[in-house]
Write a structure and sequence with these properties.
5 helices; globular; alpha/beta; Rossmann fold; 140 residues; four-stranded parallel β-sheet; 39% helix
C-alpha cells in the first residue's frame, strides 16, 4: 500500500496522537513517503500517481501557525475563526487537497483514503469538508 504523509516538520510517528487510535499502528510503520510542502506534494503525485492513502497536515509554514494563534483569533471558538488564506505566501494542506481532487477528476481516478492529522482544528475541518464534499460530487 502506498502511503503519503504531508507535514512540514513531523514524521508519521509524531502524528499518532492526532489520529484515531485504530490508525496508530499504521503511523508507527516506516513505509510512508513523506513530503513537506505543496510543491513536493504535487511533484510526488505527478511522478507516482495517486497513493492509496494520504495523511494531511494543514499548516505547512510558520505563517499558517501564526495565523491560527494571532491576536484576532485568541478569543474565538473554532467555529468562528477564519484563516487568512488569501494572505498566505505558502500554500497549505487545503491547497494540496484541492490539487488532489482536480488531479483525480482529470485522470478519472478515485480519491484515495485519507486522514487529516493537523493540530489546527479549523484547517483540519476545512480539509475534511472539502474532501468529503468533493467525494459526493466527483463522478469517479
Amino acid at each position: 500500500m502506498s502511503k503519503l504523509f504531508l507535514d512540514d516538520f513531523r514524521n508519521p510517528k509524531d502524528a499518532i496522537n492526532l489520529v484515531p487510535t485504530k490508525f496508530n499502528k499504521s503511523y508507527w510503520e516506516n513505509d510512508w513517503d513523506i513530503v513537506r510542502n505543496y510543491d513536493e506534494f504535487v511533484q510526488y503525485i505527478k511522478d507516482n500517481g495517486v497513493p492509496e492513502f494520504v495523511s494531511f497536515d494543514h499548516d505547512l509554514a510558520d505563517e499558517h501557525h501564526n495565523d491560527l494563534f494571532s491576536d484576532k483569533n485568541w478569543f474565538l471558538d473554532d467555529s468562528k475563526i477564519e484563516l487568512a488564506y488569501q494572505e498566505y505566501k505558502e500554500k497549505t494542506g487545503l491547497e494540496c487537497a484541492k490539487f488532489l481532487v482536480d488531479y483525480c477528476e482529470n485522470k478519472n481516478v478515485k480519491l484515495p483514503d485519507y486522514l487529516v492529522h493537523s493540530a489546527n482544528p479549523v484547517g483540519k475541518k476545512n480539509i475534511e469538508g472539502y474532501l468529503e464534499n468533493s467525494k459526493k460530487h466527483l463522478n469517479i
